[in-house]
Structures are given as C-alpha cells and as structure tokens.
Write a structure and sequence with these properties.
This protein has one domain: Class I glutamine amidotransferase (GATase) domain (Rossmann fold), CATH 3.40.50.880. 25% of the residues lie in helices and 23% in strands. It is built from five helices and 13 strands. The strands form four sheets. The chain has a seven-stranded mixed β-sheet, with helices on both faces. A two-stranded antiparallel sheet has the order 2-3. The protein has a two-stranded antiparallel sheet with strand order 7-10. The longest helix is centred in the first third of the chain and has 22 residues. The protein is globular and about 45 Å long. The chain starts with a helix and ends in a 5-residue tail after the last helix.
C-alpha cells in the first residue's frame, strides 16, 4: 500500500511539474547581440533599447507585461548563448543585433552561437528573431542563423513611413489568421521582408511580401519578423488613437501564441 501511495504521489508530482512547465514558461531576452548603452542622469552607463527594464519608448517593458500576464517568467541573457545557459529557457528572443554604428564592439552571431541556438531549438525551444531594416541591424550574421531554419531577411525597406503619415505602415489581419486572434490592424514600419524556403511557412503576408515566417525545427519553433516591432513606442505608446492600430493587442496575441508553441515536456 505504501509503495502504491509513493508511486501515485510521484506520478501526480510529475504531472504537476509538466503542467507548471507548460503554463509558466521562461522567456529570455538577448542582451548580448543587442547591447546598446546610454548615460543615466548621474553619468553611469546603462543598457537600453529592446530591454525588459527600459520603460521609455525604446523598451520592451509593455511586451514583457504581456508575457507575464499570460503566465510566463522573464529573464535576460547578457552573455553568448550556449547549451548550458539556454537550459531552462523556453522562449529566446533576439531583437535587432548591433552594428558598429550602435556599439563600438558589437557581438556578431558566430558559428558556435548558431550551433548552440539550433541545438536548443531542435530540443523544443521557441526562437524569436526580430530584425530591422538593413541600415539599423547587423543582417549578414543574423541571416546565417536565420538560414539555418530556411529563413532569409531581405535587404529592403518595406512599408517606409514618412513623418507622421502612420497609415503608410498599416497592415490588415485576415480572418482566421494563424497568430492574430484579436488584433485587426497592425503597424510596422521600414520592414526587412523575408524569403522562405519550403517547408517554412509564410505566416503573414502583405501584397506578396512575407512579413512573418514560422519554421519548425526538430521539436522547436522559429518565429521571424523583419522589425523589432513591439517596443513601447509602437505598442500604441506613440501611435495616435485616431488611426485605430491594434499593436497592443498584437503584442499580446504574439505572446500567447509563442507560449502555446512551448512543448508540454522539454
């Protein structure tokens, strides 16, 4: 009887752990390939631009809250990804890797990084790759990683927005979209479009241009978009209400979709 109870307890505990893993994934944001610094009022240097902590227009603090309200935990990775330091991460986001214009000594994505990330995705990791137009992102090395999964960011500038003519960046969601369940009108500007290689899926297109691609690699998933997109300025932080953009809803839709891609058992 004791053995039966102990076995039952082990099974229940194990099931609870798996459920917890599926419901409370860890979302890790890269702070290594993207590592821009600014001076604080006191003269110290701090990292900013696409970070969880940055609450100004340049940060991801609003998007981070979307992950948290959907049950995720937030982390950052200030060093190069390896098998060891990606352990425990379920969703890994790399946004806008630095050029020399942005950082004196940028960390480029090298073969060892690609091997580590690809191995992690193959085991069930969910990788998010957010590029930018080629004037503002280090595309050559970023593309080496993307091409591992059948994705290529193009050296172009789609949906270029002039001044405050925000509707130049409007994109419309079709009914039954794979990812966007509440957002209807999106805003992206100066996008690097994407070329995909079968069986990679073009998850969102506009006039024949691939805006978002989704790839499956081993047990894992890759989500790619040619813009940093969900920083605070464009989760309706600066977008005029009169344009009725749904970037705030889109950020939450994407967070929920990414969480659903995490395997129940990793």
């Amino acid at each position: 009887m004791k053995i039966f109870r102990r076995t039952l307890l082990t099974l229940v505990t194990g099931m609870s752990a798996l459920t917890l893993k599926a419901q409370h994934p860890t979302v890790t944001l890269d702070y290594y390939f993207n590592h821009e610094l600014r001076k604080t009022p006191g003269g110290a240097l701090e990292q900013f631009h696409y970070t969880w902590e940055d609450q100004q227009n340049t940060g991801y603090s609003i998007w981070g809250k979307d992950f948290v309200k959907n049950g995720a935990h937030l982390k950052s990775l200030p060093i190069a990804p390896t098998k060891a330091n990606l352990k425990g991460t379920d969703i890994y986001i790399i946004a806008d890797p630095d050029t020399k214009k942005e950082t004196l000594e940028p960390h480029y994505i090298e073969e060892k990084d690609i091997d580590a990330i690809a191995g992690w995705v193959k085991g069930g990791g969910v990788l998010v790759m957010m590029a930018n137009d080629s004037a503002n992102v280090e595309l050559p090395h970023f593309n080496k990683l993307a091409e591992k999964f059948g994705i290529h960011f193009n050296d172009d500038l789609y949906k270029h927005v002039v001044g405050d003519q925000f509707d130049m960046g409007a994109l419309y969601v079709k009914p039954g979209d794979l990812i966007f369940k509440t957002a209807k009108k999106l805003y992206l500007k100066d996008i690097a479009t994407i070329t995909v290689t079968s069986p990679v899926r073009a998850a969102f297109t506009d006039n024949g241009h691939v805006i978002i691609a989704v790839a499956h690699y081993g047990k894992g998933t890759v989500f790619a978009v040619g813009d940093p997109w969900f920083y605070n300025e464009y989760t309706n932080g600066r977008l005029p209400a009169s344009f009725k953009f749904d970037n705030d809803k889109a950020a939450n839709d994407v967070a929920k979709w990414l969480i659903k891609q995490v395997p129940a058992k990793r």
